[in-house]
């Protein structure tokens, strides 16, 4: 059992590194297109950015499944792996948000700060809907994870889970 869980840890480490590279690539392409947009030129890599973000999203979902297996098996690195995958997810959401706000809306960086109530209605289209669906999926995933989480039978395990819960709560408050 421990050997199987250790293989999952190794897999998580390797695949989270690949996911991070995917996010780095998407972010690099996004920053390049934002510079083009700010210079009054059309973005060149939107489809590639979206493809990279979708790949990273799929990878993160699989990583969360592996993390849950570790946590269910009470592996000592389960919490550490959860935090690592959670940071990848936060980065994905941040990059996708910037992509939706700056690139998909076609707005230069300065125009992004216009309050929602003052934006033209057509801007609240597919990009915004996709973003809201991503946020809703994130909330539902975390609700499911919290609902299924075991709190443990000893004080260190309970404190570890409580720390994770507080971290999630803090992320929600920051958002």
Automatic annotation (TrEMBL):
Gene3D superfamilies: 1.20.58.60
Example GO BP: intermediate filament cytoskeleton organization
InterPro entries per the UniProt record, alphabetical: PCN-like_spectrin-like_rpt (IPR049538), Plakin (IPR043197)
Segments traversing the membrane: none
Cellular component terms per the entry's GO annotation: focal adhesion; hemidesmosome; intermediate filament; perinuclear region of cytoplasm; sarcolemma
A GO MF label: structural constituent of muscle
Protein name: PLEC protein
Native species: Haliaeetus albicilla
Record lineage: Eukaryota, Metazoa, Chordata, Craniata, Vertebrata
Name of the encoding gene: Plec_1
């Amino acid at each position: 059992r421990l050997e199987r869980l250790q293989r999952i840890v190794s897999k998580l480490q390797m695949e989270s590194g690949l996911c991070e590279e995917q996010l780095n690539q998407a972010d690099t392409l996004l920053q390049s297109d934002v510079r083009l947009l700010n210079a009054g030129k059309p973005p060149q890599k939107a489809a590639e950015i979206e493809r990279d973000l979708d790949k990273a999203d799929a990878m993160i979902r699989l990583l969360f499944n592996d993390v849950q297996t570790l946590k269910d098996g009470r592996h000592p690195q389960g919490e550490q792996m959860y935090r690592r995958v959670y940071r990848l997810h936060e980065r994905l959401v941040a990059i996708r948000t910037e992509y939706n706000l700056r690139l998909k809306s076609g707005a230069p960086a300065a125009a992004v700060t216009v309050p929602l109530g003052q934006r033209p209605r057509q801007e609240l289209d597919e990009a915004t809907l996709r973003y809201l669906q991503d946020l809703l999926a994130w909330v539902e995933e975390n609700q499911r994870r919290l609902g299924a989480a075991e709190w443990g039978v000893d004080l260190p395990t309970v404190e570890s889970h409580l720390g994770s819960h507080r971290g999630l709560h803090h992320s929600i408050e920051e958002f």
